[in-house]
Amino acid sequence: MKGFTRLFAAAIVVLSMVFSVGVYQAKAGSAEGKSAFTSKNCGSCHLTTGPNTDKTFEDKLKRKGPDLWFAGSKFKKDWLVGWLKSPKPIRPMEYNSIEKKNAGNHGKLSDKEAADVTEYLMTLTSKDVVKGVVEDGKPNIQGKIVFEKKQGCYGCHSYTKAGKLFGGMSAPSFVDAGKRLQGDFIYAYLKNPKALIPVKRMPTYDGILNDNDMKAAAQYITTFK
Ligand code: HEC
Ligand code: HEC
Questions:
Q1: Does residue 192 have a pLDDT over 80?
Q2: Which atom of ligand 2 is nearest to the CA of 200?
């Protein structure tokens, strides 16, 4: 019994060392990621301290890229590392444009830079995105009805239906959105969009969809893989 207790204690020590090394590496990565973000001038196009104070469409049009101040509440970490190494167009059209096609020329990062910048971006969160509300990846019929029939989200957002690309081109694509977006972010954006994007082109659904519809739509979108 004594031997077992000692073994158990030793296992705890080893485990906590492994854990703190993990935490330490994440912290160091985040600091390096932040300096890479600064030295590569990512901040010339992306806002990292929120909230966004835009008041008019003119303010919005001055921005050259989407806000990242809530990146840690919005993206799935694995997707973010992959995208930074090998970016593919998310918006079919250029950012802030409804007529010019997205040229897909976003800068790339190396494996190490992408890992570090991801550690940094995942620390940027918004208090308006509450964690643990939406169960990501779980099928949701009610959400499908909201998305396809009740509101026609696909009028602006594209997605894959029966293996074919379907839907509008004026908004971020939802093809593979389940790999990219956290359900809790989608719900928060539907519920209180202005807390995240104060000037926006998307209609406001609060008052049109009820709370359950919003959670259901958010969950449904996280099944797109
Ligand atoms: C010249 C402006 C510009 C610079 C510099 C820039 N980006 Fe971007 N970034 C954009 C645009 C525009 C998009 C939208 C791309 C799309 O929709 O396909 C984008 C998208 C992103 C996204 C996805 C955001 C979302 O909401 O969809 C991330 C993450 C990102 N950039 C990180 C970075 C990092 C890290 C750097 C620095 C290494 C950087 N960007 C430099 C313009 C820029
Ligand atoms: C009239 C076009 C339009 C319709 C309809 C629409 N959206 Fe959007 N949506 C947008 C645009 C444009 C954006 C980009 C941000 C902005 O300007 O609001 C966006 C952004 C989003 C985002 C953030 C995506 C990202 O990657 O940044 C989510 C989530 C979203 N919409 C969900 C929905 C849902 C759910 C519905 C249906 C209930 C819907 N949208 C209907 C135009 C639309």
A1: yes
A2: 17
